[in-house]
Amino acid sequence: MQQCNLFVSIPFVVGHADWDTAPTYANTAPAVKRSYLDAVLAEMRGFAEDAQSLGIASVTFGTGSMSTIPESDMREFLSGIGRIFPIAPATPVHAVFDPGLLSVGQANELKALGAPCFEFRYFTSNFDEADVMGVPSGETEMKKTSILLEQMGLDHVVMHVALGIGGQTNASLEKTLRDALRSTVVGFELVPLREGWSRAQDDDDTARLFEHASTWLETHGFRPTTPTRFMREDVDDPYHANLYAPIGREVGLATLSFGPSTISVFDGLLWSNIGDIDRYIRESANPEAITEQVVELDEAASAQRRELDALYRKAADRLDFKERLRYRRVFERLSNRV
């Protein structure tokens, strides 16, 4: 049985995020979001024939925030995914939310799909830094969500902390990390701001902040598992840990990704989806229309993929902090060579 990670892009965010490096959309109309969710399910149905022979290792909802999806739409969407793919109750389900914007109903829908791990766009506990980014203080909002998580017995949390905000210092960054750290936190994702954003620090200064955060996290028991991600030793994180794994016909975890600007590695092939969200919504049931590029993982391509995977997993040893900061740009270029 082929073991497989599922990744679902939710490209919508709360408020403007012009600092974001991901392809996200702010203030999207509810009808557009519903059409998008229907389009993702249509793309998934193209794999229905193979789905029952897959062992689903994890499900990840990323890119933007699930807080943008109303509870009723989320219920229908997650139920649709569960009808297509055989997701066991113990399957890790990672989903990104905004602090203060997780409801009991949304949490229950994720619990019905699998074993949820909530990832929060915490960013900073510093009010001035939050103002620079145009977001609420992560700690103020997270206090509300922590009560909900405790009452529901949910104890797997990953915090996303921003790097390089204008005015951010080692002291303010360390305070954010200390404020964010709770007994339920099993990991941190360090989030660099978009290169060239007018209110971000330059990469040299941000790399120094990165180094300080890395030292603090490792001192507190979080090991680097990817260039920017730190997890507790005993926590399973199959999607992020295998993002560049040389899978296909080889033994290991494949990845099926759904939505625009995503990459899948499955059944000896690597392919990418188009980035045009409007065209994706119109034509998601037609694989030829939404596939941007497809590559057969022959021996040469698989060898390059293995090198990429080794660099990704050992980034803390093989890349400096400035390279880790912008690793996605470097890896995208290397992936294009594959």
Structural class: alpha/beta
Give the number of DSSP strands: 14
| Assembly state of the chains shown | single chain
* Sheet of most strands: 9 strands, mixed
Low-confidence stretches: none
Give the strand content. Answer: 15-25%
| Shape assignment | globular
Mean pLDDT: 93
DSSP helix fraction: 40-55%
Q: Tell me the distance between the termini.
A: 26 Å
Give the spatial strand order of the biggest sheet. 9-10-8-7-6-5-4-1-11
Given the structure, what is the number of helices? 15
Q: What is the ordering of alpha helices and beta strands? A: EEEHHEHEHEHHEHEHEEHEEEHHEHHHH
Radius of gyration: 19 Å
Features:
single chain, 338 residues, alpha/beta, 9-stranded mixed beta sheet, 3-stranded antiparallel beta sheet, 14 strands, 43% helix
Describe this structure in words.
With 338 residues, this protein is an alpha/beta fold. The protein has 15 helices and 14 strands. The chain has helices at 30-45, 48-51, 71-84, 104-113, 127-133, 138-152, 170-180, 203-219, 238-241, 277-283, 287-290, 299-313, 315-318, 321-325, 327-337, and strands at residues 2-10, 12-13, 25-26, 54-63, 92-97, 115-123, 157-163, 185-192, 222-224, 229-232, 254-258, 263-266, 269-273, 291-296. Strands 9-10-8-7-6-5-4-1-11 form a nine-stranded mixed sheet. Helix 7 links the parallel strand 7 and strand 8. Helix 1 packs across helix 10 (277-283), helix 3 runs parallel beside helix 4 and helix 7 crosses helix 8. The longest helix has 17 residues, at 203-219. It starts with a strand and ends with a helix.
